[in-house]
Amino acid sequence: MDRVALRGLKARGHHGVFQKEREEGQPFIVDLSLGLDTRSAAADDDLTKTVHYGIVAEEVVAIVEGEPVDLIETLAERIAQACLKHDGVREVEVCVHKPDAPIPVPFDDVTVTITRSRV
Predict the structure, then answer these.
(1) End-to-end Cα spacing for the chain
(2) Are the C-beta atoms of 36 and 51 separated by less than 8 Å?
(3) What pLDDT score does 64 carry?
(4) Which of 35, 106, 114, 117 is deepest in the core (most CB within 10 A)?
(5) Residues 6+ apart with CB under 8 A from 105
(6) From CA 91, how far away is CA 1, in angstroms rounded?
(7) pLDDT value at residue 119
(8) Could you give the angle at the alpha carbon of 115 between the alpha carbons of 85 and 91, nearest 5°?
(9) 52 in the Ramachandran plot: left (φ > 0), alpha (ψ -120 to 50) or beta?
(10) How far is CA 18 from CA 24, 48, 68, in A?
C-alpha cells in the first residue's frame, strides 16, 4: 500500500476534560498517513485518481476547530473516520499531539496514535 502523509497540521481546539481547556482552547497538531494505491493516479498524472491532501488538511483542521470533545482519542477517531470517507483511502494512521496538555510536570508532548481501515 502506498502512503500519502501530512505532518504538523496545526489548529486551535477546545478539547479536554477541564473547563479551562474548553474555555480558552489550546493548540493541537495532527499527523496523518493515508494508505491507498497511487498507481493509477501516477500512470495518468490525474489528481482525481488519488486523495486530494489539501482537502483532507482542511477537513482535519475543521474537525479540530469544531465541536469539543473530552478525549483526544475521540478527536483522533473523528479525524480517522473523515479520512476514510475519501475514495481510495483504505487505511489511515492519525496522531494527535496535545503539546499544552494540563500536566503538572515538565513534558514535551502528549500524543494519541490510532490506525483505522475500511472493513
Answers:
(1) 16
(2) yes
(3) 98
(4) 35
(5) none
(6) 9
(7) 72
(8) 40
(9) beta
(10) 10, 42, 11
DSSP state of 106: -
Amino acid at 115: T
Q: pTM value?
A: 0.96
Strand locations in the chain (E): 2-13, 26-36, 91-97, 111-117
Write the single-letter amino acid at 71: L
What the block records as the C-alpha cell of 53 is 491532501
Helix (H) / strand (E) containing 78: helix 72-84
What cell does 108 get?
514535551
What are the b/e assignments for 15-38, b being 16+ CB within 10 Å?
Answer: bbeeeebeeebbebbbbbbbbbee
pLDDT per residue as tens, the chain (119 positions): 999 999 999 999 999 999 999 999 999 999 999 999 999 999 999 999 999 999 999 999 999 999 999 999 999 999 999 999 999 999 999 999 999 999 999 999 999 999 999 97
Residue 69 in grid coordinates = 470533545
Grid cell 478527536 in the structure block, residue: 75
Assign 43 to helix, strand or coil: helix
